[in-house]
Design goal:
Chain lengths: 406, 389
C-alpha cells in the first residue's frame, strides 16, 4: 500500500512495554485483573487484546482474552452513563479516540518530499516519525487500559453485566458507531445539560460537603484544563527544539566529512555529541508528555466525570423538591394524594442513594488524585534528573576530549 | 610547497569595544562605541588608549583596507552588516529587549571584526588601522555606500565572472581550483547550519515563553488544590518551571551569541576568501590579455615588414617592447598574487580552526552549565514531591 505509515498491519507490541500511565491505586485484586496484553495497528483502527484473569464464578474460565476496538469501549462507557443505577458514581471517563491523523500526515509529507533530501536525512526523519507513531500508539493503549482497570477496581461497576460481556464474549459486539442522528441527539443532550448545569449550580446546597465540592470542582476543572493545554504547548516547543538539534547534528556531520583536517574531525565529534544529546532531549519531552501532560489530561476528564455526578445529584434534588411541591399541592386539593406520595418517596430515595454514594466517590476521587499526582510528580522529577545527569556527562566528556585535542 | 613558518606573536595587542552610547536624537542619532587598545607594540604612541567610533567608521576602515589590499590577493575581514531595522529601533528610542540585544550583538561583532583585522600581520602594518585605533577624531565623511548587502552583491558578481573564466583558464596549479570548490561547498553548509541554529534559537525562545505560561498555570492549579501537601508541591513545581523559563531564555541567548554569530561571521569571511580568488583570476586575465596583445603587435610588425612600410615599422617595434614589458610585469604580478592568496588561505584555515574550536567549546560549556542548573532545581523539588500524602 503506497504511503502507508509503519508500523504496518501485523505489528504486535507486548505487555511489558506499556507504561501504566496514570492511575495508581489499582487494587491488586486477584478476583478480577484486567489488562491489554497486545495491540495491533491497522489502517483505520486499532485492535486491543483485552486479557482477563479472574476467580469470580460468573466467568466460564479463569483466564481468557478477547479482541476489542475503540467503539466497543465507548459503548461500554455510555451504557454506564445511561444506567440510572449508576447515577451516584463517578463513571470512569472514556478513553479518547486513537488519533494517528497528524502522524500519518507527517509520514505522507515525508514520502512526498523524499526526492528533496539526502538518503541519510530521509532515513533519519522516517525513524523519528515512526518513533512518534509508536509513542502515540503506546499512549492510546495505556489510556484504554486505564479505563478498564478503573472499572475493574470499582466495587459496583466491576459486577456490571455489560462489562462481563465486554470481557468475555469472543465475538464482535456489533456495536456500530453513533450515526448522525444519534450524534445530534447527544449534542442537544449536552446543551440542555450545561444549561441545566448552570441552573442547578445556582441553587445553594444545604449540605456543606457538597457545596464545597461543587465550588472546588468547578474551579479545579477549569484550572486543570488550562494547565493541560499549556503543558501541551510547552512540550511541543521542546520537541521542536530537539528536532532542530537533530538537523544541526546532520549538517555538522556533512561538514565533518568534507575533509580529514583537524577542524573536520572536530565537527564530527560535536555532531556525534549533538546526536546523543538530542536523543535525550527528545526523551525528556516524551517523559514530560507522559508524566505531566497525560496526567493533567486524565484529571481533566475525571474532574468532568465528577462534575457530571454532581449534576446528576443536583437533578435528583430538583426532582425531589418538585415532588415535594407536587405532594403539597395534591394534599391541598386532596386529589391523587397517594400517587404524589409514592412519587415523592421514590424521588427521596433516589436522591439519598445518590448523595450517599456520591460522597464516597468524591472522597475516593480525591485520594486517587493525590496518589496519582504524587506518583507522577516523583517519577517526573526522577526522570528529569536522570536525563540531565546523562546530558551533563556527555557534555563533560566531550568538552574534555575536545579541549585535550587542541 | 613549503609552508612559511608562522611568526610567533611576541607582542601584545588587546582590543575591546565597550560602552555603546546613543548620541543625538531622532533619525540622526547614532551609537558611539568605546574602542580600547592595550599594547606593547612600539609603533603606537602609547601603551593604552581609547577612542570613540561609530558604525560607519568601521565600514570606512573596511573600504580603505579593501581598496588597498584586496587587489593583492589579501583576505580582508568584512565588517558586520548594516541593519536598517535594528538601527531604526535604537534611533527611535525603543527601549526593549530586542533593541538591547541588537546593540549587544553589534558591539560583539564589531569587536571580533577589529580583532581579526589586527590579528592579520600585513593589515596591522597599514597606517589606516593605526589611525583608526589611535586618532582622536577620524572623519567619517566617508558615509559608506558599501553596506553588507552591497558587499555580498559585489561578491556574487565577481563569482559569476569567475565561473566564466575558469572554463578558459589553464589551471597549472590544481590546488586553487580544489580550494575554491572546498570554499564553495563549505559556504553552502554553513548557510544551512546558520538557518538551523536560528530556528533553534526561535524554538528555545518559544519554549521559554511557554514554560512561563505553564508555570503560572500550575501555580493556579496548586492554589485550587485542596490537599495541602499536593498544593504545596504544585506551587513548588510552578517555581521550578519559572526557573526553567529563565534557563531556556539564557540558553537561547547562548545559542545565538556563541553559535549563530560565529556562523554568520564565517559566512561573511568566506565571501572575502572568494574575493581574493577572484582577484587572482583578474590578474591572470590581465596577463593573458597582455600576451594576446603582444601577439597582435608581433603580427602587425610582420605585416608591415611584408608590406615594406618602414616608417610605421618603428612604431610597431616600440609597441612590441612595451607589451613585452607588460607581459613580464603581469606574469610577475600573477605569481605574486597567487603566492599571497595561497598563504592567506592557509592562514585563514588555521584561524578558522582555532576560532571554531574556541567558540564551540565555549558554547558546549554553556550547555553544560544549563544542565547543572537543571539538576539543582529538580533535586530541590524531588523531596517536595515525595512529601505528598
Amino acid at each position: 500500500m503506497e504511503g502507508e505509515p509503519s508500523p504496518r498491519s501485523g505489528a504486535c507490541f507486548h505487555q511489558g512495554s506499556f507504561p501504566r500511565a496514570v492511575n495508581v491505586d489499582l487494587q491488586t485484586d486477584a478476583t478480577l485483573q484486567v489488562d491489554i496484553s497486545d495491540a495491533l495497528s491497522e489502517r483505520d483502527k486499532v485492535k486491543f487484546t483485552v486479557h482477563t484473569k479472574s476467580t469470580l464464578p460468573n466467568f466460564k474460565q479463569n483466564e481468557f482474552s478477547v479482541v476489542r476496538q475503540h467503539e466497543e469501549f465507548i459503548w461500554l462507557h455510555d451504557s454506564f452513563v445511561e444506567n440510572e443505577e449508576y447515577a451516584g458514581y463517578i463513571i470512569p471517563p472514556a478513553p479518547p479516540r486513537p488519533d494517528f491523523d497528524a502522524s500519518r500526515e507527517k509520514l505522507q509529507k515525508l514520502g512526498e518530499g523524499e526526492g528533496s533530501m539526502t538518503k541519510e536525512e530521509f532515513t533519519k526523519m522516517k525513524q523519528e516519525l515512526e518513533a512518534e507513531y509508536l509513542a502515540i500508539f503506546k499512549k492510546t493503549v495505556a489510556m484504554h487500559e486505564v479505563f478498564l482497570c478503573r472499572v475493574a477496581a470499582h466495587p459496583v461497576l466491576r459486577k456490571d453485566m455489560n462489562f462481563h460481556v465486554f470481557l468475555e464474549y469472543n465475538q464482535d459486539l456489533s456495536v456500530r458507531g453513533k450515526n448522525k442522528r444519534e450524534k445530534m441527539e447527544d449534542f442537544f443532550k449536552n446543551v440542555v445539560k450545561s444549561a441545566d448545569g448552570v441552573l442547578v449550580a445556582g441553587v445553594k446546597d444545604v449540605d456543606d460537603f457538597f457545596e464545597h465540592e461543587k465550588t472546588f470542582l468547578l474551579e479545579y476543572h477549569n484550572r486543570v484544563k488550562d494547565a493541560s493545554s499549556k503543558s501541551d504547548r510547552m512540550i511541543r516547543s521542546h520537541k521542536s527544539a530537539a528536532d532542530d538539534i537533530n538537523r544541526i547534528a546532520s549538517t555538522l556531520y556533512t561538514l565533518g566529512t568534507q575533509d580529514s583536517t583537524d577542524v573536520c574531525k572536530f565537527f564530527l565529534k560535536v555532531s556525534e555529541l549533538f546526536e546523543k544529546t538530542r536523543k535525550i532531549e527528545a526523551r525528556v519531552a516524551a517523559d514530560e508528555d507522559l508524566k505531566l501532560a497525560d496526567l493533567l489530561k486524565y484529571y481533566l476528564r475525571e474532574s468532568q466525570a465528577a462534575k457530571d455526578l454532581l449534576y446528576r445529584r443536583g437533578r435528583a434534588l430538583v426532582d425531589y423538591e418538585n415532588a415535594n411541591k407536587a405532594l403539597d399541592k395534591a394534599r391541598a386539593k386532596n386529589k391523587d394524594v397517594l400517587q404524589a406520595e409514592t412519587s415523592q418517596q421514590v424521588c427521596c430515595q433516589k436522591f439519598e442513594k445518590i448523595s450517599e454514594s456520591a460522597k464516597q466517590e468524591l472522597i475516593d476521587f480525591k485520594t486517587r488524585r493525590v496518589a496519582a499526582f504524587r506518583k507522577n510528580l516523583v517519577e517526573l522529577a526522577e526522570l528529569e534528573l536522570k536525563h540531565a545527569k546523562g546530558n551533563l556527562q556527555l557534555l563533560q566528556s566531550c568538552v574534555g576530549v575536545l579541549k585535550g585535542d587542541t | 610547497m613549503q609552508l612559511e613558518e608562522e611568526v610567533e606573536d611576541k607582542f601584545e595587542l588587546n582590543i575591546s569595544i565597550t560602552n555603546p552610547e546613543k548620541v543625538g536624537d531622532g533619525m540622526n542619532a547614532y551609537m558611539a562605541y568605546k574602542v580600547s587598545t592595550q599594547t606593547t607594540l612600539p609603533m603606537f604612541r602609547s601603551k593604552t588608549f581609547t577612542v570613540r567610533r561609530r558604525f560607519s567608521d568601521f565600514l570606512g576602515l573596511y573600504e580603505k583596507l579593501s581598496d588597498k589590499h584586496t587587489l593583492n590577493g589579501y583576505i580582508v575581514p568584512p565588517p558586520p552588516e548594516k541593519s536598517i531595522m535594528g538601527m531604526t529601533k535604537v534611533k527611535v528610542g525603543k527601549e526593549d529587549n530586542s533593541s538591547a540585544e541588537f546593540v549587544e550583538r553589534r558591539r560583539a561583532a564589531l569587536e571580533r571584526y577589529l580583532q581579526r583585522v589586527v590579528f592579520h600581520p600585513s593589515l596591522l602594518q597599514d597606517p589606516d588601522v593605526r589611525e583608526f585605533l589611535e586618532r582622536d577624531d577620524v572623519s567619517s565623511a566617508c558615509v559608506c555606500a558599501l553596506s553588507g548587502a552591497g558587499f555580498l552583491k559585489m561578491i556574487n558578481r565577481a563569482t559569476d565572472s569567475l565561473s566564466k573564466m575558469t572554463i578558459k583558464m589553464n589551471e597549472s596549479d590544481v590546488w586553487f581550483e580544489e580550494k575554491l570548490q572546498e570554499v564553495e561547498a563549505e559556504d553552502q553548509q554553513l548557510r544551512k547550519l546558520h538557518i538551523m541554529v536560528d530556528s533553534l534559537v526561535g524554538h528555545r525562545k518559544e519554549l521559554s515563553v511557554n514554560t512561563g505560561g505553564f508555570a503560572k498555570s500550575v501555580a493556579m492549579l496548586g492554589s485550587s488544590e485542596d490537599n495541602t501537601a499536593l498544593s504545596r508541591a504544585l506551587s513548588q513545581l510552578a517555581e521550578v518551571e519559572d526557573k526553567m523559563e529563565q534557563l531556556h531564555q539564557e540558553q537561547a541567548a547562548s545559542d545565538s551569541f556563541c553559535f549563530a554569530e560565529l556562523l554568520a561571521d564565517y559566512i561573511r569571511l568566506l565571501g572575502s576568501v572568494r574575493a581574493s580568488f577572484d582577484q587572482r583570476m583578474k590578474t591572470w586575465q590581465r596577463w593573458q590579455d597582455a600576451q594576446n596583445m603582444l601577439q597582435k603587435k608581433r603580427e602587425t610588425e610582420a605585416k608591415l615588414l611584408w608590406a615594406n612600410k618602414p616608417d610605421k615599422l618603428q612604431q610597431a617595434k616600440d609597441d612590441i617592447t612595451e607589451w613585452e614589458a607588460k607581459v613580464t610585469q603581469y606574469e610577475r604580478d600573477f605569481d605574486r598574487v597567487s603566492a599571497t592568496v595561497r598563504k592567506e588561505v592557509l592562514r585563514f584555515e588555521k584561524e578558522k580552526a582555532r576560532d571554531f574550536k574556541k567558540q564551540i567549546i565555549k558554547y558546549l560549556e554553556s550547555l553544560l552549565q544549563s544542565q547543572q542548573q537543571l539538576i539543582k532545581y529538580w533535586e530541590a523539588f524531588l523531596p517536595e514531591a515525595k512529601a505528598i500524602a
